UniProtKB/TrEMBL annotation:
This is DNA/RNA-binding protein KIN17. Residues 52-178 form the DNA/RNA-binding protein Kin17 WH-like domain. It holds the Pfam family KN17_SH3. Residues 152-196, 230-256 are annotated as: Disordered. Coiled coil: none annotated. Residues 168-187 have a biased composition (Basic and acidic residues). It comes from Lates japonicus. CDD domains: KOW_KIN17. GO terms for molecular function: double-stranded DNA binding; RNA binding; zinc ion binding. One of its GO terms (biological process) is DNA replication. Associated with DNA polymerase alpha, RFC1 and cyclin A, in multiprotein DNA replication complexes. Also associates with replication origins at the G1/S phase boundary and throughout the S phase in vivo.
């Protein structure tokens, strides 16, 4: 019987069946052929081409098994990294998504007999974090990319620096409050002195109005009384002046401590860093490989910033416009003497001139070229400034 016509129902049915996934037990990995049923698989095993492949495999079986195992492992981990990242996921979910691709490497041609054995092997090799639960095995991909590790270390360093600044400012505020409290207690404490007379013959006289009208006091006693009243008045005036001066001194001290606390709070607000740094009219470099070698490590100019974390960039070489995330870009350090824009930290949005580079501390010395602090020299990290377009 001849072959069915291309547009006949039988031919169309055969093509539809061949296009879908078939049972794994009727698949020959050596020949990369999928059979539709047991009879077809039996006929394939008896064919001359299959026998030749078996002879080639029998010469070095470990070589073929290692090759298929490496292919299966690399494809499985690539799917896990790209699809789920570092999330914890059931191994069967990843496997079902992996075998949905028709041309995948089948597990029966690898060194692992079951998915559980493969999951345990991933845990022993340190490629994934694995744990067993009543619902089955769960895996979590461990990202060992050098770029990712560098980014995590940089974020940890920035977080530690921010914590150190907060602790330092908190200790300074506590010290200022303690000093203000001590000065207040010292000013309010009265000073007691002993009553002393210059000579024992000196007499103390008091001029009382009622007694003077009745008895008629002598001239000397009235003089002494007047002098005593003047002394008392002058002492009370001095006491008032002393108390007022001490109060004013206390107020000055309190105001100075308060002003210092306010200044520290303002500096703290200025030193708060943000997790977005994109600014228009700066030069950046594309670091993602997903766009191909045409754009990888090429420089571009940011034309527009969208939603703080995205930007429309124009490639300098080709003039193409791309929309990229800030994670796919990095800053550009120009030659000394060129103008830069500070993107993060207390001097954010200020223009400056690059004076020198400190490779040991991963920072550069900049001279501010705008604002009230123009001419001031500051040290800024590499990732906190970029070349102006």
């Amino acid at each position: 019987m001849g072959k069915a016509d291309f547009l006949s129902p039988k031919a169309i049915s055969n093509r539809i069946k061949a296009k879908g996934l078939q049972k794994l037990r009727w698949y020959c990995q050596m020949c990369q052929k999928q059979c539709r049923d047991e009879n077809g698989f039996k006929c394939h095993c008896m064919s001359e081409s299959h026998q030749r492949q078996l002879l080639l495999a029998s010469e070095d079986p470990n070589k073929f098994m290692d090759y298929f195992s490496d292919e299966f492992k690399s494809d499985f981990l690539e799917l896990l990294r790209r699809r789920f990242g570092t999330k914890r996921v059931h191994n069967n979910i990843v496997y079902n998504e992996y075998i949905s691709y028709r041309e995948h490497v089948h597990m029966n041609s690898t060194q692992w007999e079951t998915l559980t054995d493969f999951t345990k092997w991933l845990g022993r090799e340190g490629l994934c974090k694995v744990d067993e639960t009543p619902k089955g095995w769960y895996i979590q991909y461990i990202d060992r990319d050098p770029e990712t590790i560098r980014r995590q270390e940089e974020q940890a360093r920035k977080k530690k620096q921010e914590m150190d600044d907060e602790e330092r400012s908190a200790r300074f505020i506590e010290e200022q409050v303690r000093r203000g409290r001590d000065s207040k207690e010292t000013d309010e404490t009265p000073v007691y002195t002993e009553l002393k007379r210059e000579s024992e013959e000196e007499k103390v006289a008091f001029n009382l109005g009622a007694s003077s009208s009745v008895a008629g006091p002598s001239k000397s006693s009235s003089v002494l009384g007047a002098s005593a009243l003047k002394t008392a008045a002058s002492s009370s005036t001095k006491r008032k002046d002393t108390s007022s001066s001490s109060d004013s001194r206390g107020e000055k001290k309190k105001k100075s401590a308060l002003e210092e606390i306010i200044e520290m709070e303002e500096k703290k607000k200025q030193s708060v860093r943000t997790d977005y740094w994109l600014q228009p009219n700066i030069v950046v470099k594309v670091i993602t490989k997903r766009l191909g070698e045409k754009y990888h490590k090429k420089k571009a100019i940011i034309m527009e910033v969208r939603d703080k974390y995205g930007a429309v960039v124009k490639m300098i070489d080709s003039g193409d416009k791309l929309k990229l995330d800030q994670n796919h870009l990095e800053t550009v350090i120009p030659a000394p003497g060129k103008k830069v824009l500070i993107l993060n930290g207390p001097y954010r949005d200020m223009e400056a001139v690059l004076e020198g580079i400190d490779e040991k501390n991963f920072c550069a010395t900049l001279t501010l070229d705008s604002g009230q602090q123009k001419g001031k020299s500051v040290d800024v990290a590499y990732e906190d400034f970029s070349k102006l377009a």
